[in-house]
């Protein structure tokens, strides 16, 4: 047995991060990239890069998009497969925006199995919906400098005067309401439930409390990656 021979590398982590808008998924993914040398692959970036490089799958995606169609799972998977064969992702990837459905998750499992790999962990950032809604619903910003404030958690030291710039005009985004926040969370849960079930059945689902500080969440994610990768 040629034990020193560097033939099949199967230790690369394949991480799937699931989390609702506002849970800090993007921030956490960047921190995992820095700490573990993982590479975040988002579907949008993958498509753009493959189109720009003119790979066969990229050209197929381009033709579909130019015709105003939706790029098929088959094409996305072909692009993902090409990308995961590149040397810069040898330590592993964080998938962002894919899979979105149980069907895509199964197709991904097959693609990985063909390469001697598997999803090492699907991490669900668990939030308290009502607390998330309260966070979003009270947000407002200084109209002059953009400093962020919150009705419940961060009022200016002097009422009506921005701490940073002394401005007295503030603005609220029309969609930062409890209703839109609740609708976004419901849509997230509906879309994610089949994926959670899929990865739970495979025994790779990890749930972590995402209501803590950025550093606390990062520590929880880090220990998962250290354990599974
Ligand atoms: Zn200001």
Automatic annotation (TrEMBL):
Zn(2+) binds at residues 142, 145, 162, 165. ATP binds at residues 22-27, 139, 212. The keyword Nucleotidyltransferase does not apply. One of its GO terms (molecular function) is AMP kinase activity. Signal peptide: none annotated. Residues 139-175 form the Adenylate kinase active site lid domain. It catalyses: AMP + ATP = 2 ADP. Pathway: Purine metabolism; AMP biosynthesis via salvage pathway; AMP from ADP: step 1/1. AMP binds at residues 43, 48, 69-71, 97-100, 104, 173, 184. InterPro entries: Adenyl_kin_sub (IPR006259), Adenylat/UMP-CMP_kin (IPR000850), Adenylat_kinase_CS (IPR033690), Adenylate_kinase_lid-dom (IPR007862), ADK_active_lid_dom_sf (IPR036193), P-loop_NTPase (IPR027417). It is found in: Cytoplasm. GO terms for biological process: AMP salvage. Its main location: cytoplasm. Its EC number is 2.7.4.3. The keyword GTP-binding does not apply. Belongs to the adenylate kinase family. NCBIfam families: adk, PRK00279.1-2, PRK00279.1-3, PRK14527.1. Monomer. Consists of three domains, a large central CORE domain and two small peripheral domains, NMPbind and LID, which undergo movements during catalysis. The LID domain closes over the site of phosphoryl transfer upon ATP binding. Assembling and dissambling the active center during each catalytic cycle provides an effective means to prevent ATP hydrolysis. Some bacteria have evolved a zinc-coordinating structure that stabilizes the LID domain. Catalyzes the reversible transfer of the terminal phosphate group between ATP and AMP. Plays an important role in cellular energy homeostasis and in adenine nucleotide metabolism. This is Adenylate kinase.
């Amino acid at each position: 047995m040629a034990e020193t021979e560097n033939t099949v590398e199967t230790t690369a982590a394949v991480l799937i991060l699931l989390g609702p808008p506002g849970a800090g998924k993007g921030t956490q993914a960047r921190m995992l990239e820095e700490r573990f040398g993982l590479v975040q692959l988002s579907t949008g970036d993958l498509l753009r890069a493959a189109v720009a490089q003119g790979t066969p799958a990229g050209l197929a995606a381009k033709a579909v998009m130019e015709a105003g169609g939706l790029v098929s799972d088959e094409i996305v998977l072909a692009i993902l497969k090409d990308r995961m064969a590149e040397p810069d992702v040898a330590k592993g990837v964080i998938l962002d925006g894919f899979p979105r459905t149980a069907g895509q998750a199964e197709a991904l499992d097959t693609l990985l199995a063909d390469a001697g790999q598997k999803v090492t962990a699907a991490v669900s950032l668990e939030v308290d919906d009502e607390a998330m809604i309260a966070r979003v619903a009270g947000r407002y910003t200084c109209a002059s400098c953009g400093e962020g404030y919150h009705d419940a958690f961060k009022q200016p030291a002097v009422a009506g005067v921005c701490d940073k710039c002394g401005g007295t005009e503030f603005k609220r985004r029309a969609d930062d309401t409890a209703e839109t926040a609740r609708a976004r969370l419901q849509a997230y849960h509906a879309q994610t439930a089949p994926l959670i079930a899929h990865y739970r059945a495979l025994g790779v689902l990890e749930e972590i409390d995402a209501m803590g500080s950025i550093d606390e969440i990062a520590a929880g994610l880090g220990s998962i990656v250290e354990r599974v990768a």
